[in-house]
Amino acid sequence: MRFSGWRVLREGLTGNKGWAPHWRDPEPKAEYDAVIIGGGGHGLSTAYYLAKNHGMTNIAVLEKGYLGGGNVGRNTTIVRANYGQQGNSEFYSHSLKLWENLEEDLNYNAMMSQRGIINLFHSDGQRDAFARRGNMMINQGDDAELLDREGVRRLLPYLDFDNVRFPIYGGLLHRRGGTARHDAVAWGFARGADQRGVDLIQQCEVTGIDIENGKVRGVQTTRGAIRAKKVGIVVAGRSGQVAAMAGMRLPIESHVLQAFVTEGIKPVIDHVVSFGMGHFYISQSNKGGLVFGGDLDFYASYAQRGNMPMMEHVMEAGMTLMPMIGKAKVLRSWGGIMDMTPDGSPIIDKTDTEGLFIDCGWCYGGFKAVPGSGFSFAHLMATGEHHEPAAKYRLDRFRKGRGLMDEEATGSQHNLH
Amino acid sequence: MRIDCPMCGSRDRREYYYQGGAVMLARPAPDAGEAAWDDYLHLRENPAGETEELWQHDGGCGAWLVVTRDTVSHEISNVALAEDVKRAMRKAS
Amino acid sequence: MRLAGKGLVDRSTPVQFSFDGTTYKGFAGDTVASALLANGVKLMGRSFKYHRPRGVLSAGSEEPNALITTGKGAGQEPNVRATVQEVYDGLVTRSQNAWPSLDFDVMAVNDLGAPFLGAGFYYKTFMWPKRFWEAVYEPVIRKAAGLGALSGKSNEDTYERAYAFCDLLVIGAGPTGLMAALTAARAGADVIIADEDSLLGGRLNAETGAVGHQSGAAWAAAVVAELSSMENVRLMSRTTVTGAYDGGMYGALERVNQHTSHRGGGAPLECFWRISAKHAVLAAGALERPIAFQNNDRPGVMTAGAVRAYLNRWGVTPGKRVAVFGNNDDAHRTARDLAAAGVHVVALIDSRNDVAVPDFDGRVFKGAQVCNAAGRKELESITIRTATGEEALQVDCLAVSGGWNPTVHLTCHMGGRPTWREDIQAFVPTDGSIPNMTVAGACNGVFSTQQCLNDGVEAAKAALKALGKKNADVEVPKAEDAPYQMSPLWAVAGKGRAWLDFQNDVSVKDIKQAAVENFRSVEHMKRYTTQGMATDQGKNSNVAALAMLADATGRGIPETGTTTFRPPYSPVSIAAMGAGAQGHGFAPERWTTSHKRSVEMGAPMIEAGLWYRPSYFPKPGESTWRQSCDREVGYVRNAVGVCDVSTLGKIDIQGPDAAKLLDFVYTNMFSSLKVGRVRYGLMLREDGFVMDDGTTARLGEQHFVMTTTTAAAGNVMRHLEFVTQALHPEWEVSFASVTEQWAQFAVAGPKSRELLNGLLDEPIKGESWPFMACGPVSVVGVEGRLFRISFSGEHAYEIAVPSRYGASLFDILLKRAEEMGGGAYGMEALNVLRIEKGFITHAEIEGRATAFDIGAAKMISAKKDCVGKTMAARPGLVDEDRPQLVGLKPVDAAKQLTAGAHLFERDAEAVRINSKGHVSSVGFSPDLGTMIGLGFFARGPERHGEVIRMVDHLRGVETEVEICHPVFLDPEGERVRG
């Protein structure tokens, strides 16, 4: 079924009786050409691009819970390509281009909204660091503008410019950045993959990875054994556990990142705004809620919930930056499990086991990477060759020290990125 | 979250700094080789369950602590001074 | 309508407030909702999507409909529950999400389009033409978004945060909570009892049943009075416990002055509490749920318990002709109480066949259901369906009860999932969901007052046992009681839209459609339909929606899923949780001893770490900062300049193994440093990248003073603690930060010695203080320290005195310097001076630079191990192609350099793959008469003298630059030694 305004109109006039399932619920087959472990955003987009770009349709996505139940459904929905390091710059640039055509591609309104992102800076030194990053963005072919204080004031008059602990010096504006409706992204990819014949199998937990003579043979699941020539692990938040099934240890420590949404209020914040002197980023959803977040809670966690110290710190940042939001009330808070790597950048690579591939370590940059990650991981799984924009996301970069992409410049401590 | 500092008693999490796995106590020899150093700095067991971690009471006495904590329930079952743990490691080896 | 002689409001204290511009009268103790109902106002809000007219549904914070905006100007607060907000004289309230008025709302036209706006419709449309999403569709959608509005003005109210500690936190002050608190308090435990209501007592204030020999409300008041008199008890009314966190921590919001007109100054509007409790008793009660039927959202349809609350607590009847509809015995009480108060109860409709109903004057329908309601802005009639047919009844209020849901919310906050109980058709908390919390009373599915009282005592006893305290004797009073029996009824079959989530306009049809479209998981259904995402977080509707989903998918409720809740229990303002951070409160501020004087001199102060440092010191006649900066550079190069450098981290290190520690944390050797000498050191992180640099002085055989950069002082301190505790506890070494104990000033320039000699009690003679010497001195009679070090390349010293002398020493130094043709210099001049000499700061060692990159590979001593040494040797960190430190000079007419620009080969296109480095620092050198810069370029050190291209797209600067040695001035270092 093709979605369109006409379809909505026709169904509305005929009692909405013609809607069909967005995807099937097939029984798992005994064998597939490839199996993707993990039905989150990245897993679903990988399946979609395997089918669309590489004609691999005899494949399955195995999800232990429900589709899109991981971080793709619990983030602050920001999409951007404003990275400063080689490797990240080209990858996120490619991903953003995919975002820009996602609705047409998927025939699903994921509400990609390029409302512009402004990263504020608060000192001359920070300005220079942002300039370096902005120049990298333009070198890559993306957009960036350096705003001075008055330029920021014109766009964001509600910020506290006067008598504040860390005065605003200016901001880096990335007009093509913005937000998207997070769940819809997962559902759109799921529906697109399903329509191309991919089996999306929910409530199917992988319990083992079958390896013989260094080659992957399939997986064991709670719904029986499934043979597969290729297996892709795409399970952010559980990467370590699943990789361990193949005897691997990963350069990952799992951390909790909280996010917050307020009650719906009339539009007050049009852009995505981030504070430069404490982790804080905010946007307003199309439903009216202020969606915002901050830094990790900083301790290892799989609990998908955080604690008060970081929650309060995020609120503090909001109050010093834009004290007009004080009377907005936080409706809900939640936490996601972040695969934190030693340089804060992800991994899309082969493993030592033939036919076994891994896509992990997205830290908290995973949402904006959903299309790009799936595109590049599908390329790697289908062709055995690294996709150029993701070619630097190698597992061995930490050991060799070559091609590290430490955006935060904080070094090998996992939680500092 | 609260942590029982052996020096100061039960204190709010705000007073503590978290570094990572307690494997950081076992610094390899300079010539231990690439794999050993990769293990030490990068690779992690990262269990969903009980694990030993290094924290510092930096808003208090400054003591580095080995905290045994569950990463799913966040329950803390033991807190020891890192220097005691390190001394015991020395003795054992 | 207010009834004479009923209720607990204070009729001797009338209060005036306004709603949508009309002034109304209420009484102290009223909420906006109770006062409006008393004044006959039923229409209080509009729903989110279809703008359907809505009245009040509940009498608590779970209210989905009656949301209003209070206050004016910066005090404007959106989405306030009319059922919670107490009235006070002068309170201004307004309806929201309606235009031009609540009564006539243009957007109500959405309701007509409802067939096209069902669950998830927006995912299927607004995609063509492509650019229309951002240009047309989305702006329209956004404009319609939200309920109330923020003022757009900066917060002007006072908010606070506080900590509290207790043995036992009792959450909820109904019969269960009061008994629990009383039991624990009499046993001597430190008790905090918190309740979100202004009046403690919970349902006892809303019911007529007696407790002991008095009314429930009177009994509650007596217990509250006893608790108030006890020193070990803190009663917190108007305080919502919002979240349960690790280690017995609870968040709680106290609405300190939301019920008064006090604003600003010392009176906080709200206080966010962090309560550390050894044990907790959750006695949060239960929430009544409506039944879905066509038009069940009409103003006048309310929960049965809310009707009783308005009647018994506030003395208000929400209607003159009331019908009661329920699937349980509890609903009968509403009919009974209304009848007893003289309100005309038209009918009692019970969906069950075999039930005993109370005796009263109205009609009784058993085995019947209400299947429709009429009256757009005010309920006019209902349609009843019985076994024999349908019948319309003229009523202006319908009290509905679909049963009660225990308030399990807090028990879900740490990942716990509630358990389904078939007998009460509701979820109850699962044991152990929150460590050290006992769940008691109605929130545990206990729906009898007597049992709640008993349960409160038992819960307290369990807590006392866990706390190791003895029980006290508490007598449990007898309570009037009735058993709670119910039979499930979630939705009445029929055409039309039967509402579940009132605020988000989610109907039974939407849930069914979601199931058809294969959104069969609860999470999918919720996200697809927005069920439970409104401001009440599904408190009124989640369980019913789950039941509808179960029905639509042919599964039982427990198989379909469960419901979970995340903090906060009810919404909390950002201002409360972030209290104190607005303006300057976000981070501590650190001031040097010269701060006051610098400000007096007109220096703009800039942040450096948490410190403030002077940017430059303007003089009359100077119109740009560059003029001041150039002059200050000239002081240092030609006479003498004075600069406060106290912000640099200073760590005093002592002990037999002090040198060993330094050898281990610095790349270069310190054990060989002579007493009375200073050495520059480079510090790596264990991953091999540069962490920090600075000088360390050896004051004695076992005594060093390390300096760090301002920004890294804390990190370095922690690093030393780590090394000495976690890696080498066997070393005998102690250290302490002395950053704030010493005020330290750079005195730099050819006349620096001359200046100092005027102050030192024992002047510097000849070579008594060669370059890199250090030691104790007496300066104007004060014991201090002198270091012959330089960050400017000039003959220079740093002089340190205990901080209490800092301000006066700065004044003296300044006066002398000015007399000698010099003066104070700030950060701008300091930056130029250090760039001229190729000295690095965190602009260069920004966390991704290696010793190799900054040309300091040889500083990693081959004779010893040090932190970072092994990893610094990784192939990627010593790759010849890495960008390396260079000096940069513009060579074309533009003469411009900008930090953050990228560097390319002369003929290369300015695109990512061609970027070979960047500019890290720039400044104008008055000595050289040109901009100069430091930067990094691939294989840069091999290419001095070559011309490359600098491109700064952002600032529109493109120029050719010459690579040169990073030391621009005095490469032999003659001045510094001279």
TrEMBL record, chain A:
InterPro entries: FAD-dep_OxRdtase, FAD/NAD-bd_sf, Rhodanese-like_dom, SoxB. One of its GO terms (biological process) is tetrahydrofolate metabolic process. PROSITE patterns: RHODANESE_3. Residues 35-78 form the Rhodanese domain. Its EC number is 1.5.3.24. It is found in: Cytoplasm. It comes from the Bacteria. Its cofactor is FMN; FAD. Signal peptide: none annotated. SUPFAM superfamilies: FAD-linked reductases, C-terminal domain, FAD/NAD(P)-binding domain. One of its GO terms (molecular function) is nucleotide binding. The keyword Oxidoreductase applies. Keywords: Cytoplasm, FAD, Flavoprotein, FMN, Nucleotide-binding, Oxidoreductase. Belongs to the SoxB family. It catalyses: sarcosine + (6S)-5,6,7,8-tetrahydrofolate + O2 = (6R)-5,10-methylene-5,6,7,8-tetrahydrofolate + glycine + H2O2; sarcosine + O2 + H2O = formaldehyde + glycine + H2O2. GO terms for cellular component: cytoplasm. Its main location: cytoplasm. This is Sarcosine oxidase subunit beta. The keyword Nucleotide-binding applies. It holds the Pfam family DAO.
UniProtKB/TrEMBL annotation, chain B:
Pfam families: SoxD. InterPro entries: SoxD, SoxD_sf. GO terms for biological process: tetrahydrofolate metabolic process. One of its GO terms (molecular function) is sarcosine oxidase activity. Gene3D superfamilies: Folate-binding superfamily (3.30.2270.10). This is Sarcosine oxidase subunit delta.
From TrEMBL, chain C:
InterPro entries: 2Fe-2S-bd_N, BFD-like_2Fe2S-bd_dom_sf, FAD/NAD-bd_sf, FAD/NAD-binding_dom, GcvT/YgfZ/DmdA, GcvT/YgfZ_C, GcvT_C, GCVT_N. Keywords: Oxidoreductase. Residues 167-364 form the FAD/NAD(P)-binding domain. It comes from the Bacteria. Residues 495-580 form the SoxA A3 domain. Residues 595-864 form the GCVT N-terminal domain. One of its GO terms (molecular function) is sarcosine oxidase activity. Belongs to the GcvT family. This is Sarcosine oxidase subunit alpha family protein. It comes from Sulfitobacter sediminilitoris.
